[in-house]
Design brief:
Structural class: mainly alpha
Order of helices and strands: HHHH
Strand content: under 5%
Distance between the termini: 61 Å
Mean pLDDT: 91
Radius of gyration: 20 Å
Length: 108
């Protein structure tokens, strides 16, 4: 991709993130009876975007350090090591995703 294409893609992704965050903020503010300004939604979007950039860089570094070109579950779990609550949620989710192994039967 060219630099202009990269910039256009980033702008589309940021717009989609702004829209999604705006919907969540609207739902939550209606529930608790407060208002949120567009500036608040914009600032929250920028903060989330910065966090996404940091996380993506960390995940890429972990996978490169392990000699892989693809980010794996191990990389995500390594990233969550300093946030016990997040790590617990991810571990629980992993358990629900992993198929149960059928019990081995012995043949006679």
């Amino acid at each position: 991709m060219t630099s202009k294409e990269d910039e256009a893609l980033e702008e589309r992704l940021k717009a989609a993130l702004w829209f999604a965050i705006g919907k969540i903020v609207d739902e939550e503010t209606l529930e608790i009876g407060v208002n949120a300004t567009p500036q608040f939604i914009g600032a929250l979007t920028e903060m989330v975007w910065a966090q996404i950039e940091n996380v993506s860089q960390d995940l890429e570094s972990f996978s490169k350090h392990a000699g892989r070109t693809t980010i794996s579950i191990d990389d995500v779990m390594l990233l969550s090591r300093r946030n016990e609550s997040l790590q617990e949620v991810l571990e629980h989710h992993l358990k629900t995703l992993q198929p149960t192994k059928p019990q081995a039967t012995t043949r006679r």
